[in-house]
Amino acid sequence: MIAGRPDRPGALFVVATPIGNLEDISARAVAVLREADLIAAEDTRSSRVLLERHGIGTAMQSLHEHNESALAARLVDRIRQGQRIALISDAGTPLVSDPGFRLVAAVRAAGLPVHPLPGACAAIAALSVAGLASDRFVFEGFLPARAAARRARLAALAAEPRTLILYESAHRIVDSVDDMVAAFGGDRPATLARELTKRFETLLGPDLAAIAAALAGDPDQRRGEFVLVVAGNPDDGAAALAEGRRLYAALARELPRSRAARIAAELSGAPRRTLYEGDD
Length: 280
Ligand code: SAM
Known about the structure:
Elements: E1 11-15, H1 27-35, E2 38-41, H2 44-53, E3 60-62, H3 68-80, E4 84-88, H4 101-109, E5 114-117, H5 122-130, E6 137-142, H6 147-157, E7 163-168, H7 173-184, E8 190-194, E9 202-204, H8 208-217, E10 226-230, H9 236-251, H10 257-268
Parallel strand pairs: 1-4, 1-5, 2-3, 2-4, 6-7
Antiparallel strand pairs: 7-10, 8-9, 8-10
Helix pairs in contact: 3-4, 6-7, 7-8, 9-10
The structure holds S-adenosylmethionine.
Residues 19-20, 89, 91-93, 96-98, 121-123, 167-169, 193, 195-198, 225-227 line the site of S-adenosylmethionine.
């Protein structure tokens, strides 16, 4: 407790902001942003539009991946002195493919309070309208920018049984979807959510081939911001087989093949004979 301010303990508030429609912010988030001593914002210029719309005049400080570590120590000091600091990103929930985790970690390591103000998140908004299994899902964020690394990542995800959620930019959406058709098959059910909550909000589907065709046929469908939601691999044995082959490939470099296959089968649950396939 700070002398003179017993009712105002310092804290960090992690505040979700809209992903498009400026009305998608909670009344509590607006109140916290108004009453904060400082708002740490990824891009103060783009956040100003939101703050002005909601009559929030609080001072802002820019916090991005290049200054976050240095700034965290100063913000921890301010919180310790009883100040209330709000963290926002350009859109949606801070820390989700956005800066903030170093600051949150520093505040928590200092034993100071951190409060979430939940709200918009493009990944969850897309999942909520994709019409794909949502009981278990994996958030993959952005795929690697370079083609070879992206294809390797997709190959590693091909057997994943849970629904996949990926972010993508307009620059790479066509290449990424084409690579997914190659890695997962065009008939894999999927939804491409574009420009959610904005004027040109669009949902494409029902599978990767249809999404690739829609992107190829209409340049307007390649503009804006995207979330891809892709059904998991329905083949229960696929994940075990992929893991078994990965283990076998590594073990066979050091051990006789039969022994490598026996160990890989035991660890992965894949049938031993299937691990030899493609091995000459
Ligand atoms: N923190 C944000 C969140 O909670 O969703 C995500 C930030 S990340 C840097 C930006 C990416 O989120 C975009 O490239 C896009 O993939 C996705 N995104 C953000 N807003 C979106 C929208 N309105 N419609 C579709 N995707 C969106």
